[in-house]
Amino acid sequence: MVDDDRERGRTRWNDDGERGRTRWNDDRERDRTRWDDGLIARRAAEKAAVAEEKAPAGPREEDALPPLGGSFGGPLRNRLDALHELVGLSRTRVESEALAEAGRVLDEAAARQRLSSRHTVIAVAGATGSGKSTLFNALAGVPVSETGLRRPTTSAPIALSWSDGSAGLLDRLAIPSRLRRRPLAGGAGDADLQGLVLVDLPDHDSAVTAHRDQVDRVLGLVDAVIWVVDPEKYADAALHERYLRPLAGHAEVTFVVLNQIDRLGTEAADLVLDDLRRLLDEDGVALGEHGEPGATVLAVSALTGEGVPELRETVARFVQERTAPERRLAADVDAAAARLRQAYVAEGRHGLDERARDAFTDRLAVAVGAQAAGEAAERVWRRGAIRACGTPWLRLYRWYERMRAHGATDPRLEVPVEDELTARQRVEQAVRIVADEASRGLPVPWAQAVREAAVRGAEGLPEALDELTVSLGDPAARPPRPAWWPAAVLAQAVMTLLQVFGALWLVGQILGVVEPGLLPPVLVMLGGIIGGPLVEWACEGAVKGPARRYGQEAERRLREAAAACGRARVLDPVAAELMRYREVREQYATVVGSRPPASRIIIGGGGGGRSGTSRLGATRAGARAR
Amino acid sequence: MVTLDERPQLIDALSALRDRVAAVRLPLPLPDTPRARQTRTELLAQLDDYLVPRLKDPDAPLLAVVGGSTGAGKSTLVNSLVGRRVSEAGVLRPTTRTPVLVCHPEDHHWFAGLRVLPQLTRVWLPQADEDHPVDEPAPEENALRVETASSLPRGLALLDAPDIDSLVVENRLLAAELICAADVWVMVTTASRYADAVPWHLLRTAKEYDVTLVTVLDRVPHQVIGEVSRQYAALLDKAGLGHVPRFTIPELPESACGGSGLLPESAVAELRGWLAHRGQDPAARQQAADRTASGIIDSLDTRLPELAGAVAAQYAAAVRLGGVVEAAYREQGKRVRRELGRGAVLAGDARTRWRAYPRDSTSEELLDALTESLAALLHCAVSAAEEHVRDAWRREPASEPLGPPGGGADREAVERIGMEARRWRRELEELAEDEVRGIDRPSGSRLSGSRSSRSSGAVPEPDTVAALLATSLLGGRRARAAGERLAELLGAQTALRLRDKGGELVLSYVDRVLHAERDRRLAPLDALDVTPEPQAELIAALSVLQKEK
Fold first, then answer.
1. How many Å lie between the alpha carbon of A393 and the closest alpha carbon of chain B?
2. SS3 per-residue string spanning A152-219
3. Spatial separation of the C-alpha atoms in residues B209 and B199, rounded to whole Å
4. Mean pLDDT across the stretch A524-535?
5. SS3 of B5, please?
6. A149, B224: Cβ pair inside 8 Å?
7. Per-residue pLDDT tens for A69-87?
8. Which of B45, B109, B269, B270 is the most buried (most CB within 10 A)?
9. Is the CB of residue B200 less than 8 Å away from at least one CB of chain A?
10. Beta strand pairing status for B156-160 and B100-103?
């Protein structure tokens, strides 16, 4: 007995709730990494396979025969390709652990595909004392595996192959040749079981943890599993929580065999079988009843032989279908997809809508001060126009006022040359908000990628906006003049001249140079005096519209320039990132994809997508239930 | 060594310790937390259900808890020991959902009250006789069925616990709790199970706590009984449990066929004898109870520091989480000051307004723009801090119960900050108004010099003063002109005083906003009230206990 002090140090009270659960969680964490692991074993197996290809005997036969099952059929092929794409596309984005598992699934698929497709590797797994080895022997027809009362009995996996050519497969499982057996008469007697490779596993629940490691390793590599349970242990938490629930997606390649029914009465056996079905259902394992794909549940007694022929027949049918490797890999892909789901699918709508883009450009416009600049331009323009058209006397007064208020200098000249015209904090905030908007509804890694893209784009954005503002120039600096301006100035000048003329006329009359006649000069002068402000007033009215247009034009130019800058630097990279996500999302959809049940693949595939997704749902439900 | 005479000081020390353990809160989900929570529950269960009642009443009957994996035949064993069906047995797993306690009728009062297992409600069922087994009661949460049987010796009670590794989580927890309350642990395993990992963990725990332990190897087929029990003995020996009494019960049709029957007297006689001896012989009884009690008290020496360590880890995590928030906001506070000094607020809109002031924009507009710009700066700082916190907390699993960080972009934060900015503006305007009113008063003599008298000739508009003041405060270096003009309007000293006051006002508002947002972020963490005291208190209570024992 292996003393597992480490285990003990970690958890003493593993039998009770929380901590026990944690331990299982830990285990599951380890299982996840270990499930499909065995890198060394795999490497060894591949090397061995290469070596054996050079050897003259078995493998050549294996090579010579065309693979009967063919390489995996269309749907699985597509899904595997999509998974490959997915891994490639998201290597830099998604946390590596989840992807590593997907990579392992791909590796496994490739490794399994290279090996014989005529064979179906089925593992016999179960708790200590459930009678795995007895059942194994019953199926073999000869005592191959040692049975005994010593617990645990079997300590290393033993393989039994009914036909030749399975060496590569067994190498992959790292089963040494001394543990490879043949059934009675080399298995030739069982035509039905040709192609079956049965592997007797050690227990998974004994105090010898090395056994569990073995089981976990082999379970990741075989095509199907027969779980052997007994009336005493069929409800063990260790079995359900550690294996059946995580492997619920693999229901189609799972057999659950209730052994030792000789210890129960018929009625009790039925009761127990029903209860077992209920527990499996709670685990999320689909049951293969009424022709639906799913796990097969049988009751046997390996000791008395009751039910063994049925099991044998079921297994034979299963083996002759030769779809187990494919179904298993499909389930693996399902599991990998379910694990990756968090990284690719999130609730809610994603993407940048028009409103968010507009809000972003609005914020940038505020940051460069577009509105204020427009208003300033409008006012400067208007003031300039009114001043130009104003009466000279008023202009003189205003000049005096200004002199008095600000001294001789123009206040605008005092403003020093400024850097950082753009409000940095507003740009930063705008980018942050648009990044948040864009990453809303995205899975975490992609949200992060979008945010990073936005932040990267925003580097240098304020400087670019500064430059832009400078290059567009201050619209208030030198406003253009409208076409009617000279006419207005002329009219104003005429009015002034009329005043002067009228005044001169009057002066002339007073001096007696000109004939007296008070009315005409007064009228002329009055006309000038009234006309001047009148022209100014008219101009003021006329200037309003063009001034507003000018201001709006200035605002629009600045706003559009800022928007273009922001679009190029921030929105486009963000959109590209979103595009990439969409692409990956599509690949993921293909990976999850339709999963036609194997029975229909033979007929020609198609359909059955719902069963695949519902299976996935069941897996998830099982995962959640944990 | 503890003797089971009444020891008031020891009981006091244990009660104090119990309160300390009960006061431990482990709200943050750290990697070790589930385990620490379990330790806490277990400690409470042992103190409440076993140690304190046992020390208070040394004469109470011994409680033997029958525990084991599912399907080990615990209920059948209890039924057989009692001699009638008290606990329902069957082929469907898990069988026992409500624990059943069986005792002698005269011992009933010990268990009827809430002396032990106070959290379980007692359920009584009408006495069932051999011919009319009791109908299955409706399963009740947290219930304990108390049965009496005169076939049981006085001074001994049997408790049939649910599976220790049940698929039903509540059963698992309950089983652990029940086992904690036992004077004698009766571990049942079977011929096909004796190498399972789960019961061995329990056995190791039993060894660690040095409790009085009996193992029963149940359901051993007749033909292999010698072999299996030898194997089992070897395993026990190897685990250092060779001295533990072992009882072997062969698999009999009574236990197999639906488990409805009772095992024959002969099969359980030995075990019953052993248990009865423990219950009746004062010395044996004393020894059994004593050993378990002192074993558990000794085990506190290692388990309490473990719990204290978890408490310390909680506190450390809380400090770490809070530290991230504080640091982020401190950083942003520094940044805001830096930006204010650089005049970053006077950019964009505000800058344009300022350049057009006073000819093309009004004081009102300038103030509006400045206020908005200040709010934008503050909002930006808060968002940046929140972003930092979010990124840092995402890496901390302990931050889970604190809710998702809001990212600072939420509307409410914008409103809160905008409100503070407007309040600041109002206060600034009031400040300017006060100052202008001060000038209005006949104190013109103070303002001498041609420029001052020229400026003060017309009393400046409060609006203008406020706008200039705000510009000079927020514009930094860029707004030197504003400061100069303010000095022209009000006189150098007044302007300087005003600027000092205004500067304080700005900084106080900046701090106020940042602190308010920081406190808002810290509120859920503060609400958890994770303090370092429980750790010290636990250790202190433990040392008191160590002195007493």
1. 20
2. CCCCCCEEEECCCCCHHHHHHCCCCHHHEECCHHHHCCCCCCCCEEEEECCCCCECCHHHHHHHHHHH
3. 15
4. 82
5. coil
6. yes
7. 345 567 788 888 888 888 8
8. B45
9. yes
10. antiparallel
